[in-house]
Every structure is written in structure tokens, then in C-alpha cells.
């Protein structure tokens, strides 16, 4: 009988034996009546000893069935409690379903007023929050009352006077490369007109006088040094730039700049530029700043690039005799003398290219 029972046992997908609670109780009863020990009985019928012991202990405690045939047995008291909870859940679900049907039928699509929701809550003896959740109505539509604020008065933009407009047009006609900050400063300095930067920007934008942003891509080589200094007469920078005239002539301009206040101490211009001209320019700068005296040893630096006019031995010897430290920039690194390069670009953009460049003499004049 036992062999036939075990042979016909249904197996799970993983090969596990699936026994009902009645089959487990029958196996335990047959083992107890056989008079064999549990290991001997399990060895004969191909069972597991620990499972048979577990089935016997559950049978003694009053277990009668297995949930989902997974081997977990429950007592009569536990099953009775589960049945009671299941009945309560069914009852609550039925009441909720009935309430929803009644409320939906009563209200329609869920759009209602606060008075109707309060009457529904009183009729079915439920809270207003539960009624709102059941209907799917936003709580803000019931409790929130929007406050009407007075309309905000929009202030009209104050237009520029005709005098300011004429002054702006006159300045931009003379210097087309001047932007908003320069125009605003010149209005205050030359015309005595005080105006905000935003009003200047608005008028220049209306007239199409704004400068288009243009930035040339520089060298990718990083520049980690610092050219500017905190005290005056501690570092001078010099450079030579060229101005090409309309008739093909080329004018060279050299200057000496203070790296503290960026003022031009001395300058020279001509068709040709040699080391002697640079030496005379440095002498003029020394006389302008130190008069008959010389700077202290190591006090003043002279920064320049590696142009042929600056690397002459006579010029280096003269700088050394004047207690000036000769400093040259690294090769292929114009950004190391960036203060002079920036002055060259600004000078040409705002003044040179806005003037008459017929020939070299007219530019000098």
C-alpha cells in the first residue's frame, strides 16, 4: 500500500515530492503501526527521516492540512483565524465597492461643489477626505479659495531725451568701436549727461549701434605668469607694432609702458626702428620718471620680446649700466607680454583703423 502511494506521488518541476496532508498523516500512522524505527522505515520506502519526524510532530499538535502543498502546516486555531480575517476583508471590500458605485452614480464624473461633498459625507457617514479620495477630486478645489490681487501697474519705460540721443549718435559716428561703457562715460564727461547703462544699451540696440562680439582664437599654450605689478616703476614693458598705410607704406611704433598703471612713459614712431631708437626711448623714460638719478639695483625690470631690436648687445649693456634688469619673454609665447599685445589691439581697433591712413606722414601728423 505504501509502495503504491509513494510510486503515484506527483512531482514538482524541480523534482520535489508533493504530498497532501492526508497522505502525510497516512504515512505517519503506517510508520507507527509497523513497529520499525524511523530511519529503517524511511530507508525502505525512500523517505527523509527529518520530514517524517516533522509530520508526526505537526499531526500531534492538531495540523490537518498544508497550504499550497509546500510542507507548511497550520493548526486548527490558525486556520480559523485566517478564515475570520478573510471574511472581514471580503466584507470591507464589498462595502467600499458599494460606496464607490453609489457615489459615482450620485455625482457623475466626480466634478462637484463643496456643499455636495459635505452632503454625501453626511449621508454615507464617512469623512470628507474619504469622499474626496473616492470621487477623485483634488482637495485644493474644495478647501482653497483664491485671493484676488489688484492688477499690478506696469511702469512705462522712460525714453531718452533728444539731447542724449544726438550725443550718442555723435559719439558712435566718431568712434564706431566704442561700446556701452565708453559711451556712458563720455556722455558724463564731455556732455554732462548722466544716464543708466541699460538706457544706453536699449537706444543703441534700437539704432543698430551695438558692437558685434568678435574674438580671435589665441595660442593654446598656457600662460601661468603675472605681468602686472603692485608698485609703479618696478616693471616696464616694451613692444613694437606696425601700421600699414593705404599707399603701402609701413609705420613702426615703439613704446614703453608701466606695468602698474599701464601708462605710456615714452614712445617713438618711424619707418625704421633700430636698437638705438629703443635705447633713446628708454633714456627718455628714465628721465621722465627718475630725472637725473638711476633706479636702485634690481628695482626696475624691462620686459620685451625677442625681436631683433631688443637683443642687440649694446642695448643690453646700456640697460645693465642703468641698473635695469633685462627680461625677455620665452620664444613663441606672445602671451608672456600680453599687456603690450592688448594695448596694440585696442590702439589699432579704436584709433588707428578709425582714422585716415593715406601715408606714413599723415598718420604721424
TrEMBL record:
<feature type="domain" description="Integrase catalytic">
    <location>
        <begin position="218"/>
        <end position="365"/>
    </location>
</feature>
<dbReference type="InterPro" id="IPR036397">
    <property type="entry name" value="RNaseH_sf"/>
</dbReference>
<dbReference type="InterPro" id="IPR048020">
    <property type="entry name" value="Transpos_IS3"/>
</dbReference>
<dbReference type="InterPro" id="IPR009057">
    <property type="entry name" value="Homeodomain-like_sf"/>
</dbReference>
<dbReference type="InterPro" id="IPR012337">
    <property type="entry name" value="RNaseH-like_sf"/>
</dbReference>
<feature type="coiled-coil region">
    <location>
        <begin position="79"/>
        <end position="106"/>
    </location>
</feature>
<dbReference type="InterPro" id="IPR050900">
    <property type="entry name" value="Transposase_IS3/IS150/IS904"/>
</dbReference>
<dbReference type="Pfam" id="PF00665">
    <property type="entry name" value="rve"/>
</dbReference>
<dbReference type="Pfam" id="PF01527">
    <property type="entry name" value="HTH_Tnp_1"/>
</dbReference>
<protein>
    <recommendedName>
        <fullName>Integrase catalytic domain-containing protein</fullName>
    </recommendedName>
</protein>
<dbReference type="InterPro" id="IPR036388">
    <property type="entry name" value="WH-like_DNA-bd_sf"/>
</dbReference>
<keyword id="KW-0175">Coiled coil</keyword>
<dbReference type="GO" id="GO:0004803">
    <property type="term" value="F:transposase activity"/>
</dbReference>
<dbReference type="InterPro" id="IPR025948">
    <property type="entry name" value="HTH-like_dom"/>
</dbReference>
<dbReference type="GO" id="GO:0003677">
    <property type="term" value="F:DNA binding"/>
</dbReference>
<dbReference type="GO" id="GO:0015074">
    <property type="term" value="P:DNA integration"/>
</dbReference>
<dbReference type="Pfam" id="PF13276">
    <property type="entry name" value="HTH_21"/>
</dbReference>
<dbReference type="InterPro" id="IPR002514">
    <property type="entry name" value="Transposase_8"/>
</dbReference>
<dbReference type="InterPro" id="IPR001584">
    <property type="entry name" value="Integrase_cat-core"/>
</dbReference>
<dbReference type="GO" id="GO:0006313">
    <property type="term" value="P:DNA transposition"/>
</dbReference>
Amino acid at each position: 500500500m505504501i509502495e503504491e502511494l509513494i510510486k503515484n506521488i506527483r512531482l514538482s518541476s524541480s523534482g520535489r515530492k508533493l504530498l497532501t496532508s492526508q497522505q502525510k498523516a497516512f504515512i505517519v500512522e503506517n510508520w507507527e503501526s509497523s513497529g520499525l524505527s524511523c530511519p529503517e522505515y524511511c530507508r525502505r520506502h525512500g523517505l527523509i527521516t527529518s520530514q517524517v519526524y516533522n509530520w508526526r510532530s505537526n499531526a500531534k499538535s492538531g495540523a490537518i492540512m498544508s497550504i499550497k502543498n509546500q510542507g507548511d502546516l497550520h493548526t486548527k486555531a490558525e486556520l480559523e483565524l485566517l478564515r475570520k480575517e478573510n471574511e472581514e476583508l471580503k466584507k470591507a471590500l464589498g462595502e467600499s465597492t458599494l460606496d464607490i458605485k453609489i457615489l459615482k452614480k450620485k455625482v457623475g464624473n466626480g466634478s462637484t461643489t463643496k456643499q455636495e461633498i459635505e452632503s454625501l459625507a453626511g449621508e454615507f457617514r464617512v469623512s470628507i477626505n474619504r469622499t474626496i479620495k473616492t470621487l477623485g477630486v483634488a482637495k485644493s478645489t474644495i478647501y482653497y479659495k483664491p485671493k484676488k490681487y489688484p492688477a499690478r501697474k506696469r511702469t512705462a519705460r522712460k525714453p531718452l531725451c533728444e539731447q542724449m540721443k544726438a550725443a550718442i549718435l555723435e559719439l558712435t559716428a566718431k568712434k564706431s568701436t566704442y561700446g556701452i561703457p565708453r559711451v556712458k562715460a563720455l556722455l558724463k564727461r564731455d556732455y554732462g549727461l548722466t544716464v543708466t547703462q541699460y538706457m544706453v544699451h536699449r537706444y543703441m540696440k534700437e539704432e543698430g549701434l551695438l558692437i558685434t562680439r568678435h574674438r580671435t582664437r589665441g595660442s593654446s599654450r598656457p600662460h601661468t605668469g603675472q605681468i602686472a605689478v603692485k608698485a609703479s616703476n618696478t616693471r616696464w614693458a616694451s613692444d613694437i607694432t606696425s601700421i600699414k598705410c593705404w599707399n603701402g607704406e609701413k609705420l613702426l611704433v615703439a613704446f614703453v609702458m608701466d606695468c602698474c598703471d599701464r601708462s605710456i612713459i615714452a614712445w617713438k614712431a618711424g619707418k625704421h626702428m633700430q636698437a638705438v631708437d629703443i635705447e633713446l626711448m628708454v633714456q627718455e623714460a628714465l628721465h621722465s620718471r627718475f630725472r637725473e638719478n638711476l633706479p636702485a639695483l634690481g628695482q626696475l625690470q624691462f620686459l620685451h620680446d625677442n625681436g631683433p631690436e631688443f637683443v642687440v648687445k649694446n642695448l643690453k649693456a646700456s640697460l645693465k649700466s642703468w641698473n635695469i634688469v633685462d627680461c625677455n619673454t620665452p620664444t613663441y609665447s606672445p602671451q608672456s607680454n600680453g599687456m603690450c599685445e592688448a594695448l596694440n589691439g585696442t590702439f589699432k581697433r579704436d584709433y588707428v583703423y578709425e582714422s585716415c591712413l593715406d601715408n606714413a606722414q599723415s598718420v604721424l601728423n
